[in-house]
Write a structure and sequence with these properties.
Distance between the termini: 11 Å
Strand order of the largest sheet: 2-1-8-7-6-5-4-3
Number of strands: 8
Order of helices and strands: EHEHEHEHHEHEHHEHEH
Structural class: alpha/beta
Shape: globular
Bound molecules: 2-phosphoglycolic acid
Number of helices: 10
């Protein structure tokens, strides 16, 4: 299966011109890597650039959606709006959105709406701290179970899960996660999905790693950790580094 490499630009870059350059460069470079499927997730206003850049189908993602379908929700963007402009994927439940109010219940509502609009949700889960008595596993189980509640079995083929340990994310990370830590959680996530939907679905669902991914640790997570792909933050804005990540993943 192709490795799914998600570029989460977050609230960057600051100008349309820069966004255009990065998008063009990455979209051209990514053609070299047949074993990697790239999904670009720029801020909302830059999504339309995908058309000018002739981004291939299935390569465009948004970073969030509203938990409502339409109506008086100033500043929010619905799953239907995104679908109508050609968006394919959407990141849901990113830790940065969870820390500003996205509970598991809201994340679940967003997943259901995304699926209704035929968007492919990338559900982010991950613990704040890794304790020594396995409390983080209970935390992750809670997230996966609530966030996927009421998702019909037939829709599970459209779900992607990204494991992002918060303690390993961003510029303030305590330390990097290891491939063993990822592997443990990946198996645990598959076990939860298996209990909910059975072993076939559990083995089919892509489980990605996210959190300070860079060219030097890509092989570790993909090869040793057996990740089905990666969710890349900072280094997805640097075409050289992103190209090196794609080369390693490929
Ligand atoms: P990072 O971000 O790669 O900059 O650590 C990952 C994320 O938060 O999605």
């Amino acid at each position: 299966m192709k490795k799914l490499i998600i570029a989460n630009w977050k609230m960057n870059p600051q100008t349309l011109k820069e966004a255009q350059t990065i998008l063009k460069t990455i979209s051209n470079e990514s053609k070299k890597y047949k074993n990697a499927h790239v999904v670009m997730c720029p801020p909302y206003p830059y999504l339309f650039l995908a058309k000018n850049t002739k981004l291939k189908k299935g390569m465009l993602g948004a970073q969030n959606i509203s938990h409502e379908l339409s109506g008086a929700y100033t500043g929010q963007v619905s799953s239907d709006i995104l679908k109508s402009i050609g968006v394919d994927y959407v990141i849901i439940g990113h830790s940065e959105n969870r820390s500003s109010g996205d509970t598991n219940i809201l994340v679940n509502q967003k997943i259901i709406l995304a699926l209704k609009s035929k968007l492919l949700p990338i559900l982010c889960v991950g613990e704040l701290i890794r304790d020594s008595h396995g409390g983080y596993l209970t935390f992750i189980k809670n997230q996966v179970t609530i966030c996927l509640a009421s998702v019909p079995k037939a829709q599970m083929k459209n779900i992607v899960i990204a494991y992002e340990p918060l303690w390993a994310i961003g510029a303030h990370a305590v330390r990097e996660a290891t491939h063993e830590e990822f592997t443990e959680v990946k198996i645990f996530i598959r076990k939860i999905i298996s209990d909910m939907y059975g072993p076939v679905i559990a083995h089919m669902i892509p489980v990605l790693y996210g959190g300070s991914v860079h060219p030097e640790n890509t092989r570790e997570f993909i090869i040793e950790g057996g990740a089905d792909g990666l969710l890349v933050g900072r280094d997805s804005l640097n075409p050289k580094k992103f190209d090196a990540i794609l080369a390693a993943a490929h």
